[in-house]
Amino acid sequence: MDETVFIEEAKKGDKTAFEKLVFKYQQKVYNYALRMTGDPTQSEDICQEALIKAYCSIASFRGDSSFSTWLYRIVYNTWQDHWRKEGRSSEMKVYFSEDADEIKSDLTDAASRLFYDRLRQEEIQDWIAKLITQLPQEFRTILILRDIQGLSYQEIAEIVDASIGTVKSRLNRARNQLRTILSGFPGTFR
Amino acid sequence: MDPLCKETQGQFADYIDRSLSFRQRERVQEHLLSCYRCSGVLDMTQQLINLCSQVGEEPVPAGFSARLRDRLQEITPVTISAENIKGSTGQPRRQRIHQRIRWIQRVFPVLQAPRIWVMAGLALLLFLIPIYYYATKSGQSGVPATVATYKTDMARVHVGLNEDTLVRIWFDARKPVEQVRFYLELPAGIAMVQDGQVVADRRLQWEGDLQSGRNLIPLTVRGVARGQWRVTVLIEKGLARKEQSVDIKVNGI
Question: Among all residues of chain B, which has the CA nearest to that of A19?
Fold first, then answer.
């Protein structure tokens, strides 16, 4: 059935229609939250909260952007709320706690094995995901949406509420930073 | 710091996305052929993008949909129609502003250049500095703002009908102030008296310097009509000005 039909039904309060609507996108937005936080439990919490918010405010959705972009924006805003409340401190922990050494050790190991083509696909995922959590949040979100999830600049601009120029600039800086982190591991790039 | 040369700065993302114009792309390619550093950065960036694209999707945790359904059941259905929300576009205000800016930039492409904004900012600054300087200078030495306070005991005086009354107006100045203008216009019920005669002119104008301390202006007025009358006093120094009104009652004694 057409997505707009589900949207109209959901606007009338039909929860089943809403569930069908979000079923199509829940994996995408869950993965976005997962790459942002690096924590499956927190990602699920954020997604559930965002989807409830989406249901409560679906009446205000007027189709100026696509439904998926609208949903992403709610997840992004929800994640930002979490980040403001508690995420800042947890992010600092990643940088300064003992975990940081462990991550660095894993990354060095993974990097050297990547060099010798011995890194498995799952390991690459894990490795890149860990690296991305080291980026500042405003760069991280754009890199995930563009380079991992393949969204257009226009969609990203709508999600993060910024101009396309800002999105491109942040993406460039995110890639630069990631490259700098990677260059710290010998043999990363061939 | 951007590791790229100026030929490729700001164009790398578009080059990788193949969204540069033919001419721009050709220029970047030409530079890459001769620049080891930029071509190295490009190579690394493309590897990086390639690595990121290999990050697959994790399935949602088991029971995700069921938990969402349970939480939805706890919510009272929302049946507000979007059409009923006046002015709502379903977008945050900041985004609507960004969209308008993007629209203006599309219509006037020249506004996309950062140097236009810098020049506009400088022009605004050049426009505002003299105004600020003049206003500040006026304010510092002007009567109304800081230096002097205007006082009169007119409000305490009830002027008798057809009787002459001395009204004292004074300025308390914290330091000498030059070239102060003072205007006073009397209403229909009060007239100025000079040498025992009513003066037809209802306006009193005075211009001069204020001394430090109290500056007294004595004024003899006569009540010519009963009622409550409002006297407006205006003091000017440069661009700074202050207006004050005092109500005077003319008694029918």
Answer: B69
